[in-house]
Amino acid sequence: MATRPPTERSGSRKNRKRDPTSGLLKGVVETIAPPILEGYEKDIVPEDLTYIGSYNWVDSPNPTITVPGSPRIWAERQMPMTVPIDSGKNFIDQNGHRMKKFTLLPLIRAVQDLTGQGVTERFDWPSVDIVTDRGRLRKLLAWAVGSSDQWRIDTQLAGANTVLLSGRAPVTKETIGWSNSYGFNYEDASTYPIPGLENEPSHHRIIAYDFDGLRMVVRCEVDACLPYDATPSRSSSHRPTTSWNVAKKKTSNSLDVKIIRAGSSKVPQSHLLELKTHGSMSMKWSKTYPQLYLSQTPHVHHAFHRNGTFTHVEKYSLGQSNLAEVAEGAQEGFKKLRKLLGYIKSLVLKHGAARISLVCQGKTLSVYRIPQGESCLPEDALALFVA
Question: Locations of Basic and acidic residues compositional bias (predicted)?
């Protein structure tokens, strides 16, 4: 049975035993030193944030998304509420599972499709500095502040200015087997889908913002949203209306994305919601706050339970006075992340068409070369970044 695919939440589990340098050319090009802060007086805050696209994955043998899709809607359930323990199959990396090496392609197709519909303005891809996922930003941030982990991020220069940070989890799908997990079933019980998207719980939102001088495009998974003025009625008869293949040219391995137009592009950024479940009263703000911050998800609900019986929900929002100490403590990490991203961009520009990969093993971040001829996007998508 397929369950909700929360890609990033799964990242904190035990790392899979796979050599992250597999498929890369032998020999370390260089080792990146942890960033040292100098000259950062002001706090770093994402500015000029713009919603540029979104989609839901469809359970289909061929890669299919609904655009713009929609997150599930928060329902204020009465407590206590009991849900069964999680079971079945779970996506760790749905984009990687369905798209193989082209993990960023759904992002590009969704943005371009909304532009084609006239829902959003034409997006200026050549002006972007970095395109990536929130999960990869979190990995870089964690390394920058001294954590020990194992991961890999592949890079590619698109056009003359844009750095693509992509990759695929070592294992993209697994059978749920860890102890006492109720998070997926809690999400199902505490939220509801809009009509027409009942079997598409995985919603991905794409935003652009300025990160202290770096123009970022960031994709993140959204658990839910608060009800809003234009929330589709649960009794609405809305259904997907059109389906087609967006790419006129076949990619090198004929892998592309089929798009179904369905959902709502009217979900306000101010209503996005992250859901967390806890079997104890402890909350790890050191991990949760950066997750909210890097996607500018304004709300988080912490739901507390004992053996699946949820007793209460604590609600927090970015900017609240009770998170001021957490926000202040996180700034050093965000400044280090900004410095690291700037260095990564300069490194990718220096190597030009020769792709490089960032490999973290323990606390060491090394640079390797990727074999010539490999690309993380098909040619027609890369052409969007040429001014």
Answer: 1-11
**CB 135 within 8 Å of CB 77:** no
Nearest to 98 by CA among 196, 186, 203, 172: 172
Is residue 282 predicted with pLDDT exceeding 90?
A: no
Decide: 209 and 49 in contact? Cβ < 8 Å.
yes
Separation of alpha carbons 2 and 243, rounded Å:
23
Task: Copy the structure tokens of residue 51.
Answer: 């919603």
| pLDDT band at 242; cut points 50, 70, 90 | very low
C-alpha span between 111 and 254 (Å, rounded): 21
| Helix, strand, coil in percent for the chain, rounding step 5 | 25, 30, 45
Q: Judging by beta carbons within 10 Å of its beta carbon (0-12, 13-18, 19+), is residue 39 exposed, middle or buried?
A: exposed
Alpha helices in 145-264 (DSSP H): 183-190
pLDDT of residue 163: 99
Q: Tokens at residue 178, please?
A: 């860890």
Domain ranges in the chain are 9-385
- Unique residue bearing structure tokens 């194992």: 150
- The mean pLDDT value of the chain amounts to 89
DSSP state at residue 319:
T
The stretch 14-24 carries a mean pLDDT of 77
The torsion angles phi and psi of 247, rounded to 5 degrees, stand at -90, 125
- Distance, in Å, from the CA atom of 288 to the CA atom of 302, rounded to the nearest integer, reads 10
Share of the chain above pLDDT 70, in %: 88
**178 vs 10, higher pLDDT:** 178
Task: Flag whether pLDDT at 238 surpasses 50.
Answer: no
SS3 170: coil
Q: Which residues contact 135 (CB under 8 A, 6 or more apart)?
A: 7, 8, 11, 220
**Token duo for residue 276:** 């967390």
Nearest to 179 by CA among 3, 313, 11, 14: 14
Task: Please give the average per-residue pLDDT across 316-335, as a whole number.
Answer: 95
Identify residue 387 by its one-letter amino acid code. A
Is the confidence at residue 191, as pLDDT, over 70?
A: yes
3-state secondary structure of 49: strand
The answer to whether the CB of 84 falls within 8 A of the CB of 308 is: yes
Q: Is 112 helix (H, G, I), strand (E, B) or coil?
A: helix
DSSP-derived 3-state class of residue 276: strand
Quote the CA–CA distance of 130 and 108 in Å, as a whole number: 13
